[in-house]
From TrEMBL:
Signal sequence coordinates: 1-48
Chief place of localization: secreted
Subcellular location per the Swiss-Prot or TrEMBL entry: Secreted
Keywords: Disulfide bond, Glycoprotein, Secreted, Signal
A biological process term (GO) from this entry: maintenance of synapse structure
Pfam family, one: C1q
Protein name: C1q domain-containing protein
Any one of the GO CC terms: extracellular region
InterPro entries given in the database record: C1q_dom (IPR001073), Cerebellin_Synaptic_Org (IPR050822), Tumour_necrosis_fac-like_dom (IPR008983)
Domain C1q: 85-221
Length: 221
């Protein structure tokens, strides 16, 4: 074979190796970029604060979590990303149709019982016990409005969190029959905390939907 033929063969071999070298360079750059992305997605170290705002994408909420496990039942991946449904809402509103509280049962427990639910999103208000159970840690709003049944008496009602009185209201005008006791509050609640109303004194006008008890989740923590 001539020297000219050998030179031509070497040029063709070098030309064939050029795409391979380019592909190897591209793979090295891709590996470096992938390593940088994984470092950015890595969970924060212990003691770091979780200041990342939620990212809403197609009805889902993605938040970067801290090193502590979630206490509200959210699913957390190995990269520390918690996924919660954007449509998860909590709210209830209950009324009384039965007249003249306290009843025989509430005389024993001092609980104000409600017999009809207008709203119970999430089913976290138990009608039998007339208590709300928090499904997750968060800030909750509660309000109540109860009407006394007789004049010349005083009623006093307390909103109880885990059997501890948080707020109270009373109505004691001796000349007014349909006087109401009302109050409202924002509460910081942990998961499984309970809230109910306690009748400390007097009798309530329960019929005709005068007495109400409502609450909802403002935002989770």
């Amino acid at each position: 074979m001539s020297l000219w033929g050998n030179a031509a063969g070497e040029r063709r071999a070098r030309a064939a190796l050029k795409p391979l070298k380019w592909e190897q360079s591209f793979l090295r750059v891709a590996k470096v970029l992938l390593s940088m992305v994984l470092m950015l997605l890595a969970p924060p170290t212990a003691g770091a604060q979780n200041d990342t705002e939620p990212i809403v994408l197609e009805g889902k909420c993605l938040v970067v979590c801290d090193s502590n496990p979630s206490s509200d039942g959210a699913i957390t991946s190995s990269l520390g990303i918690s996924v919660r449904s954007g449509s998860a809402k909590v709210a209830f509103s209950a009324i009384r149709n039965t007249n003249h509280e306290p009843s025989e049962m509430s005389n024993r427990t001092m609980t104000i019982y409600f017999d009809q639910v207008l709203v119970n999103i999430g089913n976290h208000f138990d009608l039998a016990s007339s208590a709300f159970v928090a499904p997750r840690k968060g800030i909750y709003s509660f309000s109540f409005h109860v009407v006394k049944v007789y004049n010349r008496q005083t009623i006093q009602v307390s909103l109880m969190q885990n059997n501890y009185p948080v707020i109270s209201a009373f109505a004691g005008d001796q000349d007014v029959t349909r006087e109401a006791a009302s109050n409202g509050v924002l509460l910081h609640m942990e998961r499984a905390d309970k809230v109910h109303l306690r009748l400390d004194r007097g009798n309530l006008m329960g019929g005709w939907k005068y007495s109400t008890f409502s609450g909802f989740l403002v935002f989770p923590l």
